[in-house]
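Batch job 17 of 40 flagged for manual review because the log was empty.
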Amino acid sequence: MPFLSRSLFPAAAAFVLCLSGLPGDAAAQECQRKLNFLGANASDSRKLEALLICAEETRTDLDALQMRVSAVERSITGLERADGRLQTSLDGVDDKIARAVQASERRTSSALATEARTLRSEIREASGSEAGELRSLKMQVTAAERALGRITGRGWEEFGVAKRSIGRAQNNDKDYPIVVAATINVAESNRCHARIKVNGLTVAETKNNNSQWDKSCFVTATVPPGANYVLESAPHGGGRPRVSKWTELR
């Protein structure tokens, strides 16, 4: 161990004391205890040796502490990076949620709009159908009222031989039934016979077989709308039947 002058020892001792002032540095405090243990009579070389050993141990502890600090700093840096990645991930999740909500709102809005259009179309169709049915019903009611008016306002109309005669077919051009009433007269003493046919079917018939002169036969029938009708008479002997009265309730 080289010789150490008394002028250097106070500086070395001050260095150890400075190290011992570090908070929580157990190695520096241990060096201070060793120097105190040597006492004031210990040689400078022993004191310097003890100081160097303590300094080395303190430096080693400081290196270890620095390594731990570096490790902590790296851990903090890693945590900060992880926190940044987490924040980025959370931002991405927020964006996905926002997009999903917007897409759902668009789908919901589109579905509601489609349902509204369908409902409006159904309402229009129903309204149009009901309106058409109502118009048809009104037309039927109007037609019925007109027919009823014609029926209730109809009266008996008389026709002469020029328009109505035996064997001449007629047609009911009304949209309601009419009533036909005809009288046949035979001047001679022959039998009187008369019948009304509707669409070829005999619906009314009468005969008068007495021997009196100027006999008459009366027949009447109801004729449906659009049906044809005809008055027939079969002459007997020399008698010639003729229409003496022809009326219709029209």
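Reviewer: the log was empty due to a logging misconfiguration, but the result itself is present. Residues 27 and 57 are 7 Å apart (CA to CA). Unflagging and moving on to job 18.
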